Amino acid sequence: QVQLVESGGGLVQPGGSLRLSCAASGSIFSINAMGWYRQAPGKERELVATITSGANTNYADSVKGRFTISRDNAKNTVYLQMNSLKSDDTAVYYCNMMVFTSREPYRLREIWGRGTLVTVSS
User: Fold this and answer.
1) Can you tell me the distance from the alpha carbon of 87 to that of 66, in angstroms, rounded to the nearest whole number?
2) Which terminus of the chain is less hemmed in, N or C, by CB atoms within 10 Å?
3) How many other C-beta atoms lie within 10 A of the C-beta of residue 52?
4) Closest CA to 39 of 116, 87, 80, 92
5) What single DSSP character describes residue 84?
6) Are the beta carbons of 7 and 114 closer than 8 angstroms?
7) How confident is the model at residue 1 (pLDDT cuts 50, 70, 90)?
8) What secondary structure does DSSP assign to 25-80, as a single string?
9) By CB neighbour count within 10 A (0-12 exposed, 13-18 middle, 19+ buried), where does 87 fall?
10) pLDDT digits over 59-103, tens only?
């Protein structure tokens, strides 16, 4: 019922920047937390950044100071601004949202995007 559409991934040189976007569509009452995760080759999926409905943010130590997560509630969209990219940032990035599809009855669903590939290479 709810789908996430990601955009902004691609190839970038070390030190460059990318801005990822993820927009939710479908039967949405409201959205609680939003976040970005990533999975590099041979590694487990890890949390990159999260943002609550109150705009409180949390970042992985590896991206702190370089990445910025933000949200636009009117557009049901979460963004990830990535600066000073390193080769270690190469991964598939996944959008995640906790979506209220209904409050009566109470219905909260965790939704994942399909992932977008970010490749940092010279």
Assistant:
1) 14
2) C
3) 14
4) 92
5) S
6) no
7) confident
8) EES-SEEEEEEEEEE-TTS--EEEEEE-TT--EEE-TTTTTTEEEEEEGGGTEEEE
9) exposed
10) 999 999 999 999 999 999 999 999 999 999 999 999 999 999 988
